[in-house]
């Protein structure tokens, strides 16, 4: 039977972690019948020897397969292949993959993993962004939402336009005005999260072979949305001023780029804020080469101490910027509400696409957000968030100062800390030890398309309480010590 396991081909260069490669390939073998139900898997030790990977990699692979129901462990007797859902029929009539027009194999695993870490109660959540417990607005929002509906029960019966619930749009306009973004009513639409905005923009602008530019490292879900349209992604690294506009101009001279995607304020994952000079240069280049900019601004209002940062959209005199602002980080991500501001022809066409896939964004969420925008509630809540997150940054700075292997440039706002490790420490391998110690973060290589970030990781510091944040950082420090104390075969 051991020959069957030699069919597992692992690629250490792949961005897919080794444990995922093992899990996915085993699943494939189950589904195409090479592995029959009831077959016993080698012990973790034996499998690790056969594949020449660490025991921890195999533990993670087996856990992953158990979670998917592909295998089951029986106390004392081992791990067995289960009857997979697609094995129930004796012959599979349709090979589904050959019927699909869209290839999902390249979709980045990072978002799925980050959300999985966030749901795991055993892990201190430093991977994905959540709202600090002491300032979570759930109760306040549910009360004002219930009161709003009690006074206006008719709201739930009225059809909502694809562009968004009108009273919300009206208040969103005023809200954006306060930051210098002047959008006419027809230049604004509500979307189901910034992610839907990015997907709609990709569908409208990008086709196979088109070029799009983004920062590296950057949001993997954004590159997935762009790649889904068949576009080629050109990546530009950042310095302390933000995206390197010299490199940008080089690319703009060589490639017919459809748009430039940036997250200029408290960038995810590096926390870098693009300087005013860079912003001006970026807008100048966009104008010179006639290329629109997509400005993703999920955390720009979370500035700690310093004065607010002017969005690119507020500086844009030439209708070049498509602006996205989500409520995910300001209220909570479950709402799935964001606003998109762009020139009218863009909004009109995005609406046509949105109508086809999502008649309108969830009405309950839109009404809830609107109720929360009224009477200055959101502004008061943002003040509380700024205070709570400034306290967390302060604490993280104190703890990290005691951890000589972690180097961090502390941002002036936002929700992320970008941490650098000594070159010999691989953040993805460190994560495996950290998970055993009950803490999760995002390894830098999950966020880079050009191989940056192997010895970097992203910490989202907003979700845990102050005590848990301190404990999480302490455990990461312990994981680093353990990493250094062992040679780490992978
Ligand atoms: C830069 C950036 N854009 C978009 C998103 C996704 O936002 P939403 O929850 O509104 O889809 C995130 C979430 O972390 C983000 O950091």
Structural account:
- The model has no long low-confidence stretch (mean pLDDT 91).
- Helix 9 (193-205) packs parallel to helix 10, helix 11 (245-254) runs parallel beside helix 12 and helix 16 (377-401) runs parallel beside helix 18 (466-485).
- The chain has three domains: 2-89, Orthogonal Bundle (Arc Repressor Mutant, subunit A), CATH 1.10.10.10; 110-135 and 379-485, Alpha-Beta Complex (Aspartate Aminotransferase, domain 1); 138-375, 3-Layer(aba) Sandwich (Aspartate Aminotransferase, domain 2).
- Helix 10 (220-228) links the parallel strand 6 (211-216) and strand 7 (232-239).
- The strands form four sheets. An eight-stranded mixed sheet has the order 5-12-11-10-9-6-7-8, sandwiched between helices. A four-stranded antiparallel sheet has the order 13-14-17-16.
- The longest helix is centred in the C-terminal third of the chain and has 25 residues, at 377-401.
- The chain is of the alpha/beta class and 490 residues long.
- Helix content is 43%, strand content 14%.
- It starts with a helix and ends in a 5-residue tail after the last helix.
- Bound molecules: pyridoxal-5'-phosphate.
- Pyridoxal-5'-phosphate binds at residues 129, 193-195, 219, 263, 268, 296, 298, 326, 328, 333, 338.
Topology, pairings included?
Blueprint: H1 2-5, H2 18-31, E1 40-41, H3 44-51, H4 55-67, E2 71-74, E3 78-81, H5 96-99, H6 110-119, E4 124-125, H7 138-151, H8 166-177, E5 188-191, H9 193-205, E6 211-216, H10 220-228, E7 232-239, E8 242-243, H11 245-254, E9 257-262, H12 276-289, E10 293-296, H13 312-315, E11 321-326, E12 338-341, H14 344-357, H15 363-373, H16 377-401, E13 407-408, E14 416-420, H17 427-436, E15 439-440, E16 442-443, E17 456-460, H18 466-485
Helix pairs in contact: 2-4, 3-4, 7-15, 8-15, 9-10, 9-14, 11-12, 16-18, 17-18
Residues 129, 193-195, 219, 263, 268, 296, 298, 326, 328, 333, 338 line the site of pyridoxal-5'-phosphate (PLP).
């Amino acid at each position: 039977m051991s020959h069957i396991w030699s069919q597992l081909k692992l690629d250490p260069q792949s961005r897919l972690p080794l444990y995922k490669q093992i899990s996915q390939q085993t699943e494939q073998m189950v589904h195409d019948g090479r592995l029959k139900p009831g077959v016993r898997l080698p012990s973790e030790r034996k499998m690790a020897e056969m594949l020449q990977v660490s025991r921890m990699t195999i533990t993670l692979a087996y856990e992953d397969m158990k979670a998917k129901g592909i295998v089951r462990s029986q106390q004392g007797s081992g791990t067995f292949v289960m009857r997979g859902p697609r094995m129930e029929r004796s012959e599979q009539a349709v090979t589904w993959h050959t019927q699909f027009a869209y290839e999902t194999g390249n979709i980045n695993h990072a978002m799925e993993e980050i959300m999985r870490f966030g749901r795991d109660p055993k892990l201190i959540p430093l991977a994905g962004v959540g709202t600090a417990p002491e300032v979570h607005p759930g109760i306040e929002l549910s009360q004002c939402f219930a009161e709003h509906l009690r006074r206006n029960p008719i709201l739930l019966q009225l059809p909502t336009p694809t562009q968004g619930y009108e009273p919300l749009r009206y208040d969103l306009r005023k809200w954006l005005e306060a930051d210098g973004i002047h959008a006419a009513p027809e230049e604004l639409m509500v979307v189901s999260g910034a992610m839907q905005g990015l997907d709609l923009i990709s569908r409208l602008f990008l086709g196979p072979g088109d070029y799009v530019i983004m920062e590296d490292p950057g949001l993997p879900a954004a590159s997935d949305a762009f790649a889904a349209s068949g576009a080629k992604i050109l990546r530009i690294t950042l310095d302390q001023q933000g995206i390197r506009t010299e490199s940008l101009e080089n690319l703009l001279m060589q490639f017919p780029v459809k748009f430039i995607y940036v997250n200029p304020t408290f960038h995810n994952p590096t926390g870098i804020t693009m300087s005013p000079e860079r912003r001006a240069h970026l807008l100048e280049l966009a104008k010179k080469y006639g290329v629109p900019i997509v400005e993703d601004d999920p955390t720009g209002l979370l500035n700690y101490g310093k004065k607010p940062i002017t969005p690119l959209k507020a500086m844009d005199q030439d209708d070049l910027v498509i602006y996205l602002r989500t409520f995910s980080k300001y209220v909570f991500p479950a709402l799935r509400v964001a606003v998109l501001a762009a020139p009218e022809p863009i909004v009109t066409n995005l609406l046509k696409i949105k109508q086809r896939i999502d008649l309108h964004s969830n009405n309950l969420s839109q009404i809830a957000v609107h109720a929360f925008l009224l009477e200055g509630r959101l502004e008061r809540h943002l003040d509380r968030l700024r205070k709570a997150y400034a306290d967390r940054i302060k604490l993280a700075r104190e703890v990290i100062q005691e951890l000589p292997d972690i180097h961090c440039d502390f941002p002036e706002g936002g929700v992320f800390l970008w941490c650098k490790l000594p070159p010999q420490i691989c953040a993805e391998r460190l994560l495996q030890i950290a998970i055993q110690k009950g803490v999760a973060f995002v390894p830098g290589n999950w966020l880079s398309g050009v191989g940056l970030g192997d010895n970097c990781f992203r910490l989202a510091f907003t979700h845990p309480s102050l005590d848990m944040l301190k404990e999480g950082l302490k455990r990461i420090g312990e994981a680093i010590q353990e990493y250094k104390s062992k040679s780490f075969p992978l």
